[in-house]
Amino acid sequence: MAQSEKLLEIKNLQQYFNPGKPNEVRAVDNVSFDIYKGEVMGLVGESGCGKSTTGRTIIRLYDATGGEVLYDGVNVHGKKSKKQLKEFNRKMQMIFQDPYASLNPRLKIADVIAEGIDIHGLAKNKEDRMNRVYELLETVGLNREHANRYPHEFSGGQRQRIGIARALAVEPEFIIADEPISALDVSIQAQVVNLMKKLQKEKGLTYLFIAHDLSMVKYISDRIGVMYFGKMVELAPADELYKNPLHPYTQSLLSAIPAPDPISERTRKRKTYDPASHNYADNEVIEFREVTPGHFVLCSEKEFKQYQANSKK
Ligand SMILES: Nc1ncnc2c1ncn2[C@@H]1O[C@H](COP(=O)(O)OP(=O)(O)OP(=O)(O)O)[C@@H](O)[C@H]1O
Which UniProt keywords apply (predicted)? Predict the structure, then answer.
C-alpha cells in the first residue's frame, strides 16, 4: 500500500439534517481524516452513527453543510463546471448495501453495467460496449451468458457482483462500498470481500469500506476509523486497532465479535459503552489526538496522557 500520497482529505466535514430546527440531526459532526492512494480505509460503527452519510457526502450525493472534501487537492463540494462534475462522477463510484434495490429491475444486466459506459462515452461502438460488459462480467466471476438476464434472476451474492461490475465499468479510482456484504448470507460474505480485495490490488483502487461491525473489515482494511454518534472516535492501522483499542467504544465493538472457537466464545465478555463514563468537565477540550504515530483517538488531554502511558507498556 502506498501510504504517502493522499487521494482524499476530509476536513471538518459536517452534515446536519434540518439544521437549526428542533429535529436537527448531526449525522456527521466535524469529521476529519485522509484516505491514501491505493489503501482500503474501513469505516465502522453501529447503525445510525453516520457512516453512510459520511460516504454519501464525500461522493457528493449530499452537499456538505460544513467542511471540505479534497480529492487530489480539489474541493469536491466547491463550484464546478459540468465537465469537472462528470469527471468526479466517473472517478468516484459507490457500491450499495442492497444490490437488488440499487439495480433497475427493468434493465438487462448488460444495460445495467453499461449505463456508466454510455454516460461517459467510454465505448467506441456497440461491439466494444458489449465486449466491455462481457469482460466485466468475467472480472467479477460471472459469465457472458448473464448479460441478457434481469436482476431478479440472480442471487444476492451475484447481484452484488453485478453492482461491483457496474462500478468498475467507468474505470474509477475510488470506490465507496457502503455495507456491501451486510445483506448477504454469511457464507457468501467472504467471497464478495475476497473479490473486492483482489480487484483493489489488481486495479490499484482506493476504497472506503463501510461496515457496522468489526468482524469482516479486518480482512480488507489497511486502516479503520470508528464512528459514534456522528463523530470519529478512533482511527488506526487495522492491526493496531485490534491489538490496542483505546477508546472504550471501540473496545465495546471489538467485544461484540464472536470468538471463532466455542471455548473462547463461552467465556467472551461483552463490554458496553457508556458515554457518561468519560466524566468530562465542562471546560475540557475533547479533540481528535494522535496518541502514537497514526493512531488517533477522540479524547481529553487527561485521557490522552493515560492512553500514551498505556501504549508504552
Ligand atoms: N436524509 C436524511 N434526513 C434526516 N436524517 C437523516 C437522513 N439520512 C440519515 N439521517 C439520520 O442521520 C443519522 C446517521 O444516519 P446514517 O444512515 O448515516 O447512519 P449509518 O451509520 O450509516 O447507519 P446504517 O448502518 O443504519 O445505515 C441517523 O440518525 C439518521 O436517522
Answer: ATP-binding, Nucleotide-binding, Transport
What number does the ligand 1 atom closest to the CA of 53 have?
A: 18
For residue 48, the CA-to-ligand 1 centroid distance in Å is 5
**Segment (H or E) for 305:** helix 301-312
Over residues 155-194, the pLDDT tens digits come to 999 999 999 999 999 999 999 999 988 888 888 898 999 9
Residue from 154, 175, 169, 140 nearest 108 by CA: 154
Residue nearest to atom 29 of ligand 1 (CA): 48
pTM of the model: 0.93
Three-state DSSP state, 145: helix
Give the distance (Å) from ligand 1 centre to CA of residue 27: 6
Residue in this structure with the C-alpha cell 459514534, named with its chain if needed: 228
DSSP-derived 3-state class of residue 268: coil
| Residue owning the nearest CA to atom 5 of ligand 1 | 17
The set of residues, in sequence order, having a beta carbon less than 8 Å from that of 216 and lying 6+ positions away, is: 181, 189, 190, 193
**Which class does domain 6-229 fall in?**
alpha beta
DSSP class of residue 147?
G
- How high is the ipTM of this complex? 0.96
- Phi/psi of residue 304, nearest 5 degrees: -55, -45
Could you give the angle at the alpha carbon of 166 between the alpha carbons of 161 and 167, nearest 5°?
100
Domain residue ranges in the chain: 6-229, 236-313
Pocket test residue of 23, 49, 53 for ligand 1, highest count of atoms within 8 A of CB: 53
